[in-house]
Specification:
Keywords: Methyltransferase, Transferase. InterPro entries: Methyltransf_11, SAM-dependent_MTases_sf. This is SAM-dependent methyltransferase. One of its GO terms (biological process) is methylation. With 241 residues, this protein is α/β, with parallel strands linked by helices. It has one domain: 3-Layer(aba) Sandwich (Rossmann fold). It has nine helices and nine strands. A nine-stranded mixed sheet has the order 1-2-5-4-3-6-7-9-8, with helices on both faces. Helix 6 links the parallel strand 4 and strand 5.
């Protein structure tokens, strides 16, 4: 926790086992049904074991274990010393990915939802993990802080997702890797229409094939790669050294 505190550019207090840079009176913005769900203690309880594995397998056909292996390989965690998992939820990726880091390394899970972070501390803590509460649109870390930065299954929920992605790039070190898993609107027209309609109703954003590929390229990242599966896309890139 003290190592993480030294990485922060804002003061933080310890609350429920995580570092909080927002303060007790600051509530997570939740204007949509989907965002309200992510701030629900009930959803936080069932998310890791039931909600997330089931919904993402239906959306992509990829199991949670396969996702973890793909993420670890894409982020090159064997050579990384610091990892930032943005919108980490209950730490369902932060914890397993931290185990793939070398001794003395650090995985920071970052989220705005207090119920999610409480579950993360309870279920996915370890000697290489620390959790921080804050707003991903203004990451409280200096430029070029982390060797690897990721965001899995959350950008379509977050207000100003492109601003969040640019913040992720900002805190990534030269030579570091970035990886995101998010929605993909590339299906045949009838399916695409149904996906967009449903997404609007519950407050999700559907991104097209070029959205993050172009954002990463325009930001100067290299080795940009994209995989699409059903309604999800996995995009990775490297920040030049």
């Amino acid at each position: 926790m003290e190592l993480t505190r030294r990485l922060l550019t804002k003061p933080a207090v310890v609350r429920h086992g995580y570092l909080d840079v927002l303060g007790e009176s600051t509530a997570a913005p939740a204007p949509t049904f989907a965002q309200r769900a992510m701030n629900s203690p009930f959803v936080a309880t069932v998310y890791e074991g039931l909600w997330r594995p089931t919904s993402f397998f239906v959306a992509s056909g990829v199991t949670t274990r396969a996702e973890e292996r793909r993420a670890a390989d894409a982020l090159r965690l064997r050579s990384a010393k610091t990892l930032l998992d943005v919108a980490c939820g209950p730490g369902n990726f932060t914890g397993p990915l931290a185990e793939r880091l070398s001794t003395g390394s650090l995985a920071v899970g970052f989220d705005i939802s207090e119920p999610m972070l409480k579950r993360a501390v309870a279920d996915n803590s370890g000697p290489r993990t620390c959790y921080v509460r804050g707003d991903a649109r203004d990451l409280p870390f200096g430029e070029e802080t982390f060797d690897a930065v990721c965001c899995f299954g959350a950008l379509y929920l977050i207000p100003e997702p492109y601003r969040v992605a640019r913040e992720m790039i900002r805190v990534l070190r030269p030579g570091g890797r970035i990886a995101i898993l998010t929605s993909y609107a590339g299906q045949p027209p009838p399916i695409n229409f149904a996906l967009h309609t449903t997404a609007r109703l519950i407050g999700l954003t559907m991104f097209d094939r070029r959205a993050f590929v172009d954002l990463f390229t325009e930001a100067g990242l290299v080795d940009v790669e994209q995989q699409t599966q059903r309604a999800l896309q996995f995009v990775t890139a490297t920040k030049p050294g």
